[in-house]
Write a structure and sequence with these properties.
The structure is a single chain. The chain is of the alpha/beta class. 40% of the residues lie in helices and 14% in strands. It contains ten helices and seven strands. It has helices at 2-16, 28-34, 47-76, 92-95, 110-123, 142-148, 170-182, 199-204, 224-229, 240-246, and strands at residues 81-85, 103-108, 130-135, 158-161, 189-193, 233-238, 264-269. It has a seven-stranded mixed sheet with strand order 3-2-1-4-5-7-6, with helices on both faces. The longest helix is centred in the first third of the chain and has 30 residues, at 47-76. The protein is globular. The two termini are 33 Å apart.
Length: 270
């Protein structure tokens, strides 16, 4: 899974080089290079495979901007605790401006955190907030590990699960949300990305074994807003097409049939 996180870093590095980039991630190129994904590998000869690859990369760019904005809004509301679940090569602790007193917890397994630490040392990177790594598998007692690291469940938290839930079976997703809810004070916020309906069929059917798409198992529920209400969250659902247009990157191809609820989720704990 953490090799996939390096692939995400490569996408962010390419976006950061654009003249009209939606964000700047100076560390992304270092992560991609250390992981053997820089410079860019040549596109595959299969036009359909290339189209799918570009589609995934585009979704990563849009979701990154979406969650950046959500985090800024959460900070502006006074939240000073951030938890990145399955943090991977996320560099928000280093590339975003954080209010004084912000504590950012990166939860992931030891392997990606160790790899990341080696690159950060090499780059002499300095976080812009208090950054706390929590080395634990999300299938284990990560709430206990998070508590031991200093997370305060009585204070509001903004939780981010980016590109994570699509890899978890339905029961694991439900357990993750229950655990998040148990540590979320009123006013906490949450940003999720969900696999849209049919994405596994479109991208995973002929995916190369071991590739990211071959590991996808979970799509979004039919009504994500109602689903999250059942977990105690007041949520909004946004489509990739909506957010892309808002960011000045409209999708030129027409939608496939009726647009379904979107997989970019912002939520508030009531």
């Amino acid at each position: 899974m953490w090799a996939t996180a390096v692939g995400v870093a490569r996408v962010r590095a390419l976006e950061s080089e654009r003249e009209n980039a939606l964000f700047s991630d100076p560390l992304a190129q270092a992560f991609a290079a250390a992981g053997g994904l820089w410079p860019s590998s040549p596109p595959p000869g299969d036009k359909e495979a290339r189209r799918r690859r570009l589609g995934v990369a585009f979704s990563i760019v849009i979701r990154t901007k979406f969650l950046d904005d959500l985090l800024r809004q959460a900070s502006a509301s006074g939240i000073r605790q951030v938890v990145l679940l399955g943090a991977g090569m996320d560099s928000r602790a280093f590339r975003m401006d954080w209010p004084e007193g912000t504590r950012l917890f990166e939860v992931d397994t030891p392997a990606p955190l160790d790899f990341k630490a080696s690159v950060l040392r090499q780059e002499r990177a300095t976080p812009r907030c208090e950054r706390i790594t929590v080395a634990v598998d999300l299938r284990d007692d990560w709430p206990g590990a998070l508590a031991a690291a200093g997370h305060d469940p009585t204070a509001p938290t903004v939780w981010i699960a980016e590109g994570l839930l699509i890899y978890l079976p339905e029961d694991a997703v439900e357990l993750l949300l229950a655990r998040i809810g148990a540590r979320s004070a009123a006013g906490s916020r949450m940003g999720l990305t969900l696999g849209s309906r049919g994405v596994i069929e479109r991208f995973g059917a002929d995916a190369v074994p071991g590739s990211a798409a071959s590991l996808w198992v979970s799509e979004m529920p039919d009504d994500p807003v109602e689903w999250l209400a059942g977990h105690g969250w007041e949520a909004g659902s946004h489509t990739l097409r909506e957010r892309a247009a808002a960011y000045g990157r409209p999708i030129s191809t027409p939608p496939r049939g009726e647009e379904q609820p979107g997989g970019l989720i912002s939520a508030v704990r009531r």
